[in-house]
Amino acid sequence: MKPFYPLTRTMFRTIACAAACALLAALTLVPAGRAGQPATQPLNPPPPSFETCKAVGGGTICAGSRVEPPYGPVGTGIVCGSGATAFEIFDSGTDIQHHAKRIYDQDGNLTRRMFTDDYVSAQFSNPLSGGTVPYAQHNVTTGILGVPGDLNTETQTVRGENNYTVPGMGAVFLNAGRTVFAPDGTEEFTAGPHSFDAYFSGDTSAVAKLCAALA
Fold it and tell me: Residue 10 has what DSSP assignment?
């Protein structure tokens, strides 16, 4: 599932230092007799099927990796030009999700989750001309739940990059940096060039080079 559109899915996620430090502390304090034991208590919400869960001193950690089925071509909502020559940009690729991890407390409630996405064989395309622009994308995602077990209270932070480069034209579309999303999906903080946001906020010039490359 491609995390770029609608607008609330156009950003990148980051693992906050506090999250990493808390995880390290939890692993360090695991008693030798408990480390690596299979989880036995019900977990809320349940982890995805590709993650394997182990009991730790203060709760449960689930981790795993997966390759999702190729997606697309799917419409992005980005439209180039106007009138008879207008076209919507389509997207396709494959998402490799790795380093996925969930941390549950001693009551079996999720407190945070994190994962990394890398997209391969990814490209934007113009279905009218057949033109394509390949791209590279790397995202790191973390979510911290305000109320353990309730995903509706999750604050997400995103860091990464998604860049489109065309020989002879250089970079035609740039997205990089960090964004923090409140539980209701609104942006609390953003930093870095985000061409997707610029376009969907009304700045059509943000996609001018991309449209030219695909036309």
Answer: S
Which residue, chain included where needed, has tokens 């942006």?
Answer: 187
Q: Does the residue 126 lie in any domain? A: yes
Local structure of 128: helix, strand or coil: coil
Parent domain of 23:
7-214
Q: Say if 1 falls within a structural domain.
A: no
The rounded distance, in Å, linking the Cα atoms of 33 and 55 is: 10
Asked if 151 and 45 count as a contact pair (C-beta separation under 8 A), the reply is: yes
In a domain, 149, yes or no: yes
pTM: 0.74
| DSSP codes joined into one string, 62-122 | EEEEEEPPPEEEEEEEEEES-GGG-EEEEEEEEEEEEEEEEEE-TTSBEEEEEEEEEEEEE
Query: Amino acid identity, residue 37?
Result: Q
Residue-by-residue pLDDT tens, the chain, 215 positions:
343 333 333 333 323 333 333 333 333 333 433 345 666 789 999 999 999 999 998 899 999 999 999 999 999 999 999 998 899 999 999 999 999 999 999 999 999 999 999 999 999 999 999 999 999 999 999 999 999 999 999 999 999 999 899 999 999 999 999 999 999 999 999 999 999 989 999 999 999 999 999 99
The position carrying tokens 């060039």 is: 193
Please check whether residue 113 is in contact with residue 105, taking contact to mean a CB–CB distance below 8 angstroms. Answer: no
Instruction: Specify the number of domains making up the chain.
Output: 1
Domain contains 174: yes
